[in-house]
Design a protein that fits this description.
The protein is an alpha/beta fold. The relative contact order is 0.14. The chain starts with 7 loop residues before the first helix and ends in a 17-residue tail after the last helix. Helix 3 links the parallel strand 2 and strand 3.
């Protein structure tokens, strides 16, 4: 997917129409959409085209449990436009192909993973509307943030890596802790992949990091993070190191993602933060304080510090 082009005019029209709708009118609340159900999907593709000869895959996986449905609303009302248009303008990577995922809790939820296509135009916002905001989750202190890692590793084909050995980007976003493993039973139930053992989170990260630059944004406004921020941060930093980014204002989600890509591609944190206006600059700086450009070439072995 991803053969058409982004149109600011289309986004402006879409955003204006969306502004008059309530949250309940925008999103799917009836169950998982068949087109977004990962079970049975062989592959999602980010391919080069005449319109996008240097495609670059970007995945944003949003926690949609509890109060975290606000993340999807932020993207559909404003963030998608900011994300795509700022990447096109700032050019940290070329020809962005965007996939959105919805993440829940495989222990409790009916739809712990939902996946759009890779898109380059207004269709990504329209697919985002079909995300089932289940508002589920449970009392196990984490959500299934590793399901997007597994899907990206085993069910995507991205030309940025296949043709140019440039890793795509994968951002998970939420307010709870990182699970210690991905259960084979959940992979079978929700993706249909059998004959696998449980996977340790570190092993799964090594697998997905072969083709993706992996980050996590901790939403510090979230109810769980507000009460257990040190625990949440330490569970993630123990595995991802400096690529754990505290997000203190969820309405700046897109700006922080764009900025993280810029810094990872070699730009200085201070310069990137100053490129944004007002409070956005402060939020970006707070999120990226510990982030430095990748220490190894994009084709080399990933090391998380």
């Amino acid at each position: 997917m991803g053969s058409s082009s982004w149109s600011p005019k289309d986004w402006a029209s879409y955003s204006t129409a969306t502004a008059s709708k309530s949250t309940a009118d925008i999103f799917n609340r009836k169950g998982i959409d068949g087109d977004l159900n990962p079970k049975g999907i062989t592959v999602r593709e980010s391919r080069d085209s005449s319109a996008h000869p240097q495609s670059h895959a970007i995945i944003v996986a949003l926690d949609v449990t509890g109060s975290m449905g606000m993340l999807a609303e932020t993207l559909v009302r404003k963030g998608v436009g900011t994300l795509v248009e700022e990447i096109i303008a700032r050019k940290p990577v070329t020809d962005p192909h965007l996939m959105i995922m919805g993440v829940g809790d495989a222990e409790y939820d009916d739809a712990p993973l939902q996946v759009t296509q890779f898109q380059t135009d207004i269709l990504i916002a329209k697919q985002l509307e079909n995300i089932y905001i289940e508002h589920g989750g449970g009392g196990n202190n984490h959500e299934s943030y590793t399901l997007p890692w597994y899907f990206a590793a085993e069910h995507t084909v991205i030309d940025c890596y296949e043709k140019r050995k440039r890793r795509g980007y994968l951002f998970t976003v939420g307010d709870e802790e990182l699970p210690s493993k991905l259960k084979a039973a959940h992979v079978l139930e929700f993706l249909g992949d059998g004959q696998r053992d449980d996977m340790d989170t570190r092993d799964l990260l090594a697998l997905v990091s072969q083709r993706y630059e992996v980050f996590h944004l901790v939403v510090t406004e979230g109810s769980y993070a507000r009460s257990h921020l040190d625990r949440v941060m330490s569970s993630w930093t123990a595995v991802l190191g400096q690529r754990v980014l505290p997000l203190r204002d969820h309405t700046k989600l897109a700006e922080v993602i764009v900025s993280a890509i810029e810094v990872n591609e070699g730009r200085a944190v201070d310069a990137v933060a100053k490129s944004w206006d007002g409070d956005t600059s402060v939020v970006v700086r707070d999120a990226l304080t510990s982030l430095t450009p990748r220490a190894t070439p994009t084709t080399g072995v990933m090391r998380f510090r």
